[in-house]
Design goal:
By secondary structure, the protein is of the alpha+beta class. Helices cover 23% and strands 9% of the residues. It has a 3-stranded antiparallel sheet.
Length: 140
């Protein structure tokens, strides 16, 4: 049985940076206050999706990020439409990359949360305040 381990020590033991493909290239890409700056400064939901896709692409060039907020998957086994803001597909996908959300081929989905009440880890505000809870932005 192991006791508490510092996060840095845990990561170096079980997930060393030497095993992460292109790690040193990615470290140079990510810079606090610079990376995702356009995404964080976007003024509305519709502006964010394309900016986010543009800014995330260098971190995962083998993935296809698709703005799927308006093209949900209606052909699934559920009674409702599944609508991710951004659908993510790997380049090894057999056939063409879907234009929208297709859960049968989806590797990951991204759903943006805009308001404090969207955060499942915070109690709702009693004053009806709708403030973005991740990052600082003029978006409300």
């Amino acid at each position: 049985m192991a006791g508490p381990v510092a996060i840095k020590d845990f990561l170096e033991s079980f997930f060393p940076t030497s095993c992460i493909p292109r790690y040193y290239l990615m470290v140079n890409l990510f810079k606090k206050g610079v990376s995702f700056k356009q995404t964080l400064e976007a003024m509305g939901k519709l502006d964010v999706y394309k900016l986010f896709i543009k800014e995330i692409k260098p971190f995962a060039p083998e993935l296809h990020f698709i703005d799927s907020h308006a093209q949900g998957d209606k052909k699934n086994r559920y009674d409702f439409e599944i609508k991710a803001d951004v659908s993510v597909y790997h380049e090894s996908l057999d056939g063409p990359i879907p234009e929208g959300c297709n859960i049968s081929n989806l590797d990951m989905h991204i759903k943006f949360k805009w308001h404090r009440f969207d955060n499942p880890f915070l109690a709702p505000s009693s004053n009806g305040d709708q403030v973005v809870f991740l990052g600082y932005s003029n978006t409300k």
